[in-house]
Design brief:
By secondary structure, the protein is an alpha+beta fold. The protein contains 7 helices and 17 strands. The longest helix is centred in the N-terminal third of the chain and has 25 residues. The two termini are 33 Å apart. Keywords: Membrane, Transmembrane, Transmembrane helix.
Length: 326
């Protein structure tokens, strides 16, 4: 059962914590852990250990039992040694991240995080994840490095920034939890998810699918569409209007060529993200068929070409089109 007041209090505390972390640990390309960015606190087992040690100390003091006092001090010394070893197990780690491979909306962005120790020390029982409920344990051997992957859900197109993540350890005794929240500068381009367009290519062009979208000023009759505000009246098909079938505009297309052009302004009316999803689908289809294709977004244009690099440039342009930073 969720209590609204408690949820708001947690959200408030989480916001304050994030703000404090943003000031103390801003985004950096590389981070080496030290006493300024490592935090340590007793774990659940640690609090139980301290409680038992405290009770033994109080009992030994009340009953003047030297054995109990000696045991309490020994446990206290053991706790201090545990704090030192736990802290040293995390200190000195160096973290670096790289940009994730581009993905489509809905696919997980996989950010690689590299960990090593410049001094070559080994580190045991480390855990990494986006939250305390999503931790994956690993060890770092001496004179070695390891790569851990962080999988982040993508919900919208654009340039995604790698989120802050959790790195912690409870080694060696499990009494102390040593953790940090690094924020490494890495990004992932999130393409619009491909959406099958409402019209097939051969409906928009010739049977060979090469006249993908019409071009104004061309001579070949292409088809009809409904009149839109701003369309010249000379293109209205008055014969169709006389048959009470509404205002229809005649469209013309360029002759079929070996190059396909995809133009945002020629797409049927729909939401921007939907139109970009159609274009994403068309780009992938053209590339899959080995066709040369171009992209025209109005403010940005890519000449016909083909290949993985051209496809990435076009898809990235779709991802960044009128997009605010994430």
């Amino acid at each position: 059962m969720r209590i609204p007041g408690v949820a708001r209090l947690r959200a408030f505390a989480r916001g304050k914590m994030q703000g404090w972390l943003a000031k103390r640990m801003p985004a950096v390309p590389e981070l080496q852990l030290n006493h300024k960015n490592i935090f340590i606190f007793p774990s659940g087992a640690g609090w139980l250990f301290l409680l038992i040690g405290g009770l033994i100390l109080i009992g030994g003091a009340n009953y003047q039992n030297n054995v109990a006092l000696a045991l309490a001090f020994w446990l206290g010394s053991l706790a201090m040694v545990g704090v030192f070893i736990s802290f040293r197990n995390v200190m000195g780690l160096r973290l670096r991240a790289k940009d994730a491979m581009p993905v489509f909306v809905g696919e997980p962005a996989r950010f690689p995080v590299w960990l090593d120790d410049p001094d070559g020390r080994a580190h045991q029982l480390l855990a990494i994840g986006l939250s305390s409920n999503d931790l994956r344990e690993f060890d770092l051997d001496a004179q070695a490095q390891t790569m851990q992957e962080l999988s982040v859900v993508t919900e919208r197109r654009g340039l995604m920034t790698m989120p802050r993540f959790l790195l912690q350890s409870v080694a060696p005794f499990g009494w102390m939890r040593v953790w940090t929240w690094p924020f490494l500068a890495a990004h992932c381009v999130v393409y619009p998810a491909p959406i099958k367009p409402p019209l097939a290519f051969d409906q928009l062009g010739g049977s060979d699918g090469k006249k993908v979208f019409q071009q104004e000023g061309a001579d070949d009759f292409f088809g009809h569409r409904r009149w839109r505000s701003g369309d010249p009246l000379r293109q209205v098909d008055w014969k169709i209007y006389a048959k009470e079938r509404g205002l229809m505009v005649r469209e013309f297309a360029t002759p079929a060529t070996d190059e396909w052009w995809f133009r945002l302004q020629d797409l049927p009316a729909a939401g921007l993200d939907t139109q970009l999803g159609w274009l994403s689908h068309m780009l992938l289809s053209a590339e899959h068929q080995g066709q040369r294709y171009g992209l025209d977004l109005g403010s940005e244009k890519f000449a016909p070409n083909q290949g993985d690099l051209h496809l990435h440039r076009c898809l990235k342009a779709l991802a960044m089109f009128r997009q605010v930073p994430q």
